## 1
Amino acid sequence: MENFSVILVEPIYGGNIGSVARVMMNFGFKNLVMVNPPLTGIVAMKFAAHAKEIVQNAKIFKSFDEMAGNFDLLIGTSAKIAGDKNFIRTPISSAKIGNAVNVSGRIGIVFGREDCGLPDKEIEKCDILVTILTCKNYESLNLSHSVAVILYEIVREKNLRQKNFKKMKLADNLERDIMLEKFTELVSVFALGDFRTLLITKTFKIVTGRAFISGRECNTLTGVFRRSYELIEKLKQKKV
């Protein structure tokens, strides 16, 4: 699980940090990343038990944006979900996150603050949103429990796929950015207006993120979008 990182965004309690490290060690994950964590090193180390090294080696970033640039795929997590009216908070279930096992690249699983989770502006920067299905009467899980469920699903899927699947190379940030640029360029041809164009491109980004698109697939789509745009522009010039 070397290509996976558990990312804690502004965690509040040192005990939760230590408990997360312990869960990570249980499932074979080593890379802990924290965004603007508190100064609770002693408490975190106490709760980490035999996973102290994970806390000691954690990478620290000052902001979400600084952290996000270090990953090819960001998987956000949230108990606050919505229907089709808010596509940013339309998630996949935790059971489907195992698909990430079949891709290479730097994958970060993002967990929000204990009291308020991840806001829309941070979820929007994630490629996929995942939720854990719980009882509606009390939907929010403890941070370390949430991490345990997600990591379990990844490890379970890894064990099922280990003998039967080859890893595909995940599209990196540059490949996805170019694909999105060419898609946006194509959509702009239809003069739908800035708001609708932005909505369509955001939806496309979310859909392709859920699909764990490979580099080859990404480049193929980029070629289709580029060629389509060029053909449309040529037809426009002929009419003139």
## 2
Amino acid sequence: MIRKILEIVLSLILISVFILDGCGDSLEDPTPPSRPQWVEKSAPEDSIEHGIDADPIDDYIFLEWHPNSDDDISAYKIYRAENNASAKFSLLADVDAFSTFGGDTIYIDDSVELNKIYYYYLLAVDQAGNKSEPSDTIRYGLIQKTDLNYPLIAITEKRPRFEWHDFTSFSYQYIIRVEKLSPLEVIWIYRFNKTNYADTFQSMLFDNNNTASEHELTAGTSYRWRVDAIYLVDPSDRDISGSESQWGYFSIKP
């Protein structure tokens, strides 16, 4: 009798294991995630910057992509190669799928060197470990930042001449940005060709092209400014090698 009971129990256990295994197979996800998409790079003179770019904080490359629409994404893998898209790509970083910024996912590559072009592509990984097809390959390279000189204090001129030093021979264009603080507002963006190649000293008069939202800066107001340098552009005239200076801060005396 006891033997019969044991046989029945063993049979029930085997049936349970079989059912659970079958359920497990049905719950497996063999479908890979959709291919990730980079955020399109903005033009150098756009007021809102997005996509791959230099970083004004330091010699970093900023990467930005759209989050996948799949609801089971766990991570993204970023791969990088140097100087040639045909070179060997190595895993640069695993990025948690919830590392978002303003709805998009970002990564700052802080392990780059100046005067090199870096190539990047992405893979999306879901919770089952499936990997997507690779994203498009994008590229960017850094050159030395410009060194802001004037203004960096409280000044009286309402149309100051912005001055900086450019210690690299690579740049051929600049973009100067002036923004009002509190609330933050873009006042002037001007893209222009470098004309003085004989000296590191460069300068530009405020609103030289008459496109600023204020022809004269306002007394008692604080501002910040930056100079981006361009070395290489793609066929759509977007920079693929350049730099962004750190922000300089100044105010107009009352």
## 3
Amino acid sequence: MQLSADLTPEALEAALPGRCVRSYVALLSTGSAALGWADSGAPDGAVVVAGHQLSPRGHAGRPWQVAPGEGLGLSLVVRPSLPAEREGWLYTVVLSALAEVCGEEAAIEWPDEVRLGGERVAAVGIKTRLGSGGVEFGVVDMLLPTAQPPRAQVIGAVLEAIEGRRAAPPSAVLERYDRRCATVGREVRIRFLAGTGPVVGGRALGTLEDGALLLETAAGRRAPVRPQDVRGLEQA
């Protein structure tokens, strides 16, 4: 097995000049490799790419399928200036960027997917390490199952869109996110990760600067729900 021509170190260097990149023929998951690299000091913006992943996982540990030579799975190390209570903002930034790259008609499904014509075209899973000063680092795992060669250029477009949103005012990012978010305005039911809360339902009003989805329950109460606490969402 070898790397496809569009994901070789040379192709990645041409598409991502000056960026720290590690590329592999095969890995258990790029997320695990990126997490270990972040632990040992990987810089902000470092990227891990693999031609094949044996056991990639996304949000809430859900398994992803990344077939050899098809689609695209990668992981990005970020060291944002965010307080711990805003760690979920990374979901907003990354999903908004992925939706832009996936096309004008692409819609965001909070908390972790982008869909086009009803089909998933991108997904995100984020692991963070929190410290006394806030978010020490995050590892952003991304899946683009329909990405086509030249995939190194797709990676470049995704990273450029992410960096643009990281530098933008939160209000501008939220406006673009909510405009594309198909979840906003719907009646939904949210299932939480074990130990973080019961099932809750209501109408999605919009998203907040910590990445939370703001729900209005049948009783009229407004409740913010953080993406990192959620196992899944379904239409009510």
## 4
Amino acid sequence: MTIAIGKAIQEGRNLVEPEAYELLEAYGVSVPRHRVVNSAEQAEVASAELGYPVVAKIVSPDVLHKTELGGVLLNLNDAAAVRAAYRQIVERSRQARAALRGVLISRMAPPGIEVIAGLTQDAQFGPVVMFGLGGIFVEVYRDVSFRLIPLTELDAAAMIREIKASPVLQGVRGGRPADLKALADLLLTVSRMAVENPEIAEMDLNPIIVYEEGLSVVDARVLLHHKTAPA
């Protein structure tokens, strides 16, 4: 159990995104450069250090779906936009009565192919790794594959091949192929995280932007198992 997971369980909450990033980085997974700030002035300084354009996200254990709350503001290109975004997120958290633990400022990732990976719980078999088409349409198209943990290298490769969008990853119609080895390694890492941290109930890495070389997990959500008090 990591320190962040232990602290979150003790406080009866899930990981906030900076903690999820920290967990991923501990396992060698690439995430965007980022800072957590607590004022509009800090947001401006962080953005200048990271380099524009940036994205601003709400950091709150009370908000599972940041986009639905309006807690994700993209393509901020200057200090004025960053300051306005910070104030907007603070106001939206106040309206939602969500405990605010800062605003996450991160460098916008270059465009690439968006996929999703994660961990979910099957009612019969327990933890399973999931992989599929990413972005906001994942719940519409349901182009996903599943495997029980622990994954093998053969499992990871098969999961990538099984989705209908697999030809896109391989570079159809002149498109550049995605880094399939990096994808397979990520799926194996998700499996290893689940095995080594059984406190993780669900993990949602969406989107993951895949390039010809490497990938970046742009958004991460990690839910934890919490023991219920005896009646």
